[in-house]
Amino acid sequence: MSIVGGVVTIDGVRQDGSLQGPVNVVVNGNVESLSAIDNVTVYGDCDDVETVSGDVYCDNVNGDVESVSGNVNAETIHGKVKTISGNIRGAK
Questions:
Q1: Contact 71, 53 (CB under 8 A)
Q2: How many alpha carbons lie under 13 Å from residue 21 in its C-beta half-sphere?
């Protein structure tokens, strides 16, 4: 599945209608690369995750995680975490 410019495509088929926000992304598994506008929650390992105006939660940060105006929370941080106007919290 991909969401680009409000267009939803699932298994290569463009879906009819429009996507209304906010769009919160929840992943049960590991993320290699993900860009979003709103909140991102990953129950697994995060490599590269970026969001514009939402909070980011990852179990384990191994890569680069960035939020422009949101908080970043993680159980463990082994990579780089950056936020411009939010807080960074790591449990370990």
A1: no
A2: 13
- Look at phi and psi of residue 72 and say left if phi exceeds 0, alpha if psi is from -120 to 50, else beta: beta
Which range (9-23, 42-56, 72-86) has the least confidence? 9-23
How much is the pTM? Answer: 0.76
Token pair of 15 as six digits:
């879906």
Residues 56 and 74: their CA atoms lie apart, in Å, by 8
Burial class (CB in 10 A: 0-12, 13-18, 19+), 37: middle
pLDDT in tens, 53-66: 889 999 999 999 99
